[in-house]
Specification:
Elements lengths: L3 E8 L4 E9 L5 E9 L8 H22 L1
Antiparallel strand pairs: 1-2, 2-3
Length: 69
């Protein structure tokens, strides 16, 4: 199943990241994977770097959760 990045957001006030991936499901519906996690960094990142880092961390979390099952 190939997931496509659907949405990524970062709330600076709450220091939370929201990342959503979607893929077609075998029964004709959609599989939706959503990660909400705390994110903070001491580095000064551009908006593009911040988005890339958030996606990288979300993918890492998904892999860890997949291995735990």
């Amino acid at each position: 199943m190939k997931f496509k990045l659907e949405r990524r957001e970062y709330d600076r006030g709450k220091q939370r990241a929201y990342v959503e991936f979607r893929a077609p499901d075998s029964d004709g519906g959609q599989a939706i994977v959503l990660a909400v996690f705390s994110y903070q960094t001491t580095e000064r990142l551009s908006k593009q770097q911040l988005k890339q880092d958030i996606i990288r961390k979300a993918r890492h979390l998904f892999r860890r959760s997949w291995m735990a099952t």
